[in-house]
Amino acid sequence: MYAIVRCGGRQEKAAVDDVLTVDTLAGEVGSSVTLPAVLVVDDGKVISDPAEVGGYQVTAEIMGAVAGPKINMIHYRNKTGYRRRLGHRQRYTQVKITGISTGKSAGKAGAAKAGTATAKAKAAPKSAAEKKG
Predict the structure, then answer these.
(1) How many helices (H) and strands (E) does the chain have?
(2) For a Cys-Cys bond, which of 1, 31, 91, 131 suits 27, CB 3.0-4.6 Å?
């Protein structure tokens, strides 16, 4: 079973016991986090419908902070003596995937919540229109 999650502007394929490097997350080493935005889940069959995927959750444990590769930048302008040298190392967090919830009951609850949210969204403009008229 695997899931594709969006974390830090990138999409990562996550399976149980995988170690991922993602953008910096708030939390201490050893704490548990839930990765947001599950896009696709493969549990025997591939599920990509947002209504069904919304019930799934990917949980991970923070393993520690790491730094990415060194990026060197050199600025040079001809005939002026202008030279600048810059460097950068992006900070990342390593996480270990501890579980992907099946979402059987959560999927139905998520769909019910989504249905009530759309009903409330539709009701709000009508009440605002009635106040004006």
Answers:
(1) 2, 10
(2) 31
What percent of the chain is modeled with pLDDT above 70? 77
* Pair type for strands 91-100 and 10-15: unpaired
Q: How far is CA 69 from CA 45, 72, 74, 90, 97, in A?
A: 37, 10, 16, 7, 23
pLDDT tens digits, one per residue of 40-62: 988 788 988 888 888 889 999 99
Match 């009701």 to its residue by tokens.
123
Tokens standing for residue 14: 């996550």
Q: Residue 131's pLDDT is what? A: 54
Tokens 């409330």 correspond to what residue? 120
pTM for this predicted structure = 0.67
Average pLDDT along the chain: 82
User: Among 19, 29, 28, 24, which residue's Cα sits nearest to residue 7?
Assistant: 24
CA atoms of 83 and 48, how far apart (whole Å): 51
Structure tokens at 55: 């019930």
